[in-house]
Write a structure and sequence with these properties.
By secondary structure, this protein is α/β, with parallel strands linked by helices. The protein is 36% helix and 17% strand. It has a nine-stranded mixed β-sheet, with helices on both faces. Helix 4 packs across helix 6 and helix 6 packs parallel to helix 8.
Length: 277
Amino acid sequence: MEVLDKSILLIGESGVGKTHYGAQLLKRLMREDGRIRMRGAATNLQPFEAVMASLDVGLSADHTATSVYQESRWPIVDDQERKADLIWPDYGGEQVKKIIDDRRLPRAWLTRIAESSAWLLMIRLQTAQAADDVFSRPLTSLKGNSKEAREAQLSDQARLIELLQILTYAHATSGRRIGRLPRLVVLLTCWDEMKNPGTPIDVLHERLPMFSDFVASNWTDCSVLGLSALARSLDRKKPDNDYIAKGSEQFGYVVLEDAVQSPDLTLPIQELLAGPS
């Protein structure tokens, strides 16, 4: 069997739960009770270790400051011996927002994108708005109302499309993998906050229809999964006794494409490993 190394890039703005997921995923990898395990030493685990310490005493972790983040690379391998480096970029989410606002990629991101063969895009639908924007409500409709015209801006789903367009353009022009987009998994976070959810793809299409259609038209094999890294909301000051008694590694789940829940938080990463290089 041919074994190909991959580079999986994790992407998400502030507040989507990247570090909580990283801490819970790291525990699974250390215990080797999922589809993926570590195949070597990871770099810069400091942000995740601090979060794991908070979860162990039943507390939610504080937002990770941008100054704390440095790139963290986790060498991983799945149960079919497919290998990859999972890359957590050095950002607290603000860098992604700046990329969209400025329409410019820092040099470090250009290198990451050029080297990547798969992307894990994390979205928190509860904070994403699909309200009127310059696409659904053209500026011509605001003629004569200068105040409304000044306030017209991109909606969150249009911003997500803009982000993917920037990333795909940078990847295509890098010359590393001509004619092939990186494999994409869209991970809908904080699933426990959803009210009467259906399948992840149905929820995405209902909440962000334009973004959902854009993804479907560009990635024929994209998977849309749900994630609850903690399985419940935790307080920053009042400990959760269940977490203390059972251990944080007993909490959290992934929602598969058919809406079935699995406790294996490595599955979104394994989905990217299993896809074509």
